[in-house]
Amino acid sequence: MNSATTLVAGIGELVTNDPAHGGPLGILRDAALVIDGDRVAWTGPASAAPDADQRVDLAGRAVLPGFVDSHSHLVFAGDRAEEFAARMTGQPYSAGGIRTTVAATRAATDEELTANVARLVTEMRRQGTTTVEIKSGYGLSVIDEARSLAVARQFTDETTFLGAHVVPEGTDATSYVDLVTGPMLDAAAPHASWIDAFCETGAFDADQARTVLEAGQAAGLRGRLHANQLGPGPGVQLAAELGLTAVDHCTYLTGADVDALRDSGTIATLLPGVEFSTRHPYPDARQLIDAGVAVAIASDCNPGSCYTSSMPLCIALAVREMRMSPAEAVRAATAGGAAALDRDDVGSLTPGARADLVVLDAPSHVHLAYRPGVPLVAGVWLGGQPLS
Ligand SMILES: [Zn+2]
User: Fold this and answer.
1) CA nearest neighbour of 24 among 64, 62, 53, 54
2) What's the CA-to-centroid distance between 72 and ligand 1, angstroms?
3) What's the pTM value of the predicted model, to 2 decimals?
4) What number of other Cβ atoms are within 10 A of residue 91's Cβ?
């Protein structure tokens, strides 16, 4: 354990997400931060900064908590660029496209899958993501789901068993749910922290999703759910009823769905890269936030409906297309994502939190939305260490 202390000085704007500092982001100006080992030890005005073993000066740049991407599907092989090109010329997205990736993933070796995840995680880190959740869901057999999760576990503890992504060819939904909740869950659970299902027309109905989620919870996994992405449906209310940590997509919601989310405290994870990449309508983030629903933003990085790994892009989309303020979007991409993973050690920069930092080549967090598409992430610190 490296216990040397580092004073990070010259921070023009420090986003702490600490409510004690006021506003949605707990911003400190002309600030400094001290790192001890892998943790934040102190934050405050630069003029009051304590001594440390070493000192780094950021010359007025903004510092944010590392982004927490609470929804991704990085374990796959191949891509679907042709499907995307076809969709952009008028063909609709359907859940069945997943099967193309399933075939490629099953044919790939463990080494090929690992190399692809490593490539994407590196890509994410360069764009400021310091915590990532990774799902299975392109194996859809006992052996391929288990090895997908074993691959994901090399990169994060936030691994999610999504055997109930789509019903694979050659079986029916009832038989497949039996497999998912039986031998597949047994093989997957040692490598997974979370259980998930795709509750959508063309994937799994509410009864099937409930069966999967309850089996996973009985095996010690915590629940999250894909719901209400392609149209209205029962998934959001199922997630609220089961007390799941998060329900993801939330594009088509009724007033009763919004009430259920507010009352349950289940986090609504919005994935605006999907709507961007499928030309679907965006979720109504304003309605959710104004109703008091806790909101996260994540990438949903996957080869079909949304092949971006960029949280800065998702923040820009949330502001431009979902009418979130820049502060709301940044909070949703940091503290929101942490809440969606039930984590209190990431997503904020307060004493005791992990020293996962994003340094922007800009004076404030607003520039993430104000300057879309510009590579503003000038540095990333992971557990107190700068990434080279
Ligand atoms: Zn997803």
Assistant:
1) 64
2) 6
3) 0.97
4) 10
